[in-house]
Amino acid sequence: GFVALRLPLDEYPTASAAAAYLASAFRTTGERAASTARSLGGRLGTALSRTGQTLGSEEAVAVGGLLEGLKPENVTLQLVLGAIPGELARTGRRGAIAIDEAHVIAKWDRDELAAVRAFLARDDRLTGIALTSSDNRAERKLRPPKVLGYLGEEFMLPAINVDDWRHGLRSRFDQAGVPIDDAALDLLLDESRCHPYCTMLLAKHAAELGQPFEAVSVSVIRLALPTVQKHEAWKLR
């Protein structure tokens, strides 16, 4: 068996929030995950959108009762990261955790950084992937001798081809019930400069604003722009 999780540090930027997210994701049932999420006041019961899994699915709960019965105030990053490998071994499964916007961990304290390094250094049933944007400042925080030191291997993901963007976005807008016309799609990609995060951010807001009109036009993209331009990630374009 295999378990895949994404830890989005842009949404959970503190060590305690990251720990709570992971603890919730490894709960035994969807109901328990949702209950934990409500008690923490966060969005821990949301879909694991980039892995195509939701809390409570067979894949997401395969690891079992990680930190069973532990109160939210007692959840620490060190405790959660230390428990995951043993739980994987107990259930005979392998796991992969993608840490998105991993440069955020540079702001954590020494003990938390040590826990992350020890976790990523393991190769028994576990693969850790640290992802960061193309922003040079973010990259430098992960490179030797910084946060992750000499762990693992560095690789660069190629840019998404603009034709692939057009095909993928058009189908997603259709699925959302708000088809996008050619001019609006051109403007969306031009404004986002095809940066993955910024493109999806603008697409998300445009799809929401287009609901009353049952379509996304140039005017809808222009309505969405002021909001996304205020997002801290917009400068990454």
Main pleated sheet = 3 strands, parallel
Class by SSE composition: mainly alpha
What's the count of strands?
Answer: 3
Radius of gyration: 19 Å
Instruction: Write the element-wise H/E pattern from the N-terminal end onward.
Output: EHHHEHEHHHHH
The shape, in one word, is elongated
Q: Uncertain regions: pLDDT < 50 for 5+ in a row?
A: 28-65
Beta-strand share of residues: 5-15%
Helix content: 40-55%
**Global mean pLDDT:** 76
Could you please describe the fold and organization of this structure?
The protein is mostly helical and 237 residues long. Helix content is 46%, strand content 8%. It has helices at 15-25, 30-40, 77-91, 110-121, 136-142, 162-175, 182-192, 196-210, 218-229; strands at 2-8, 94-100, 126-130. The chain has a three-stranded parallel sheet, with helices on one face. β2, α4 (110-121) and β3 (126-130) form a beta-alpha-beta unit. α1 (15-25) runs antiparallel to α2 (30-40), α1 (15-25) runs parallel beside α3 (77-91) and α7 packs across α8. The longest helix has 15 residues, at 77-91. The radius of gyration is 19 Å and the shape is elongated. The model is unreliable at 28-65 (pLDDT under 50).
Ordered list of secondary-structure elements with their pairings:
Blueprint: E1 2-8, H1 15-25, H2 30-40, H3 77-91, E2 94-100, H4 110-121, E3 126-130, H5 136-142, H6 162-175, H7 182-192, H8 196-210, H9 218-229
Parallel strand pairs: 1-2, 2-3
Helix pairs in contact: 1-2, 1-3, 3-4, 7-8, 7-9, 8-9
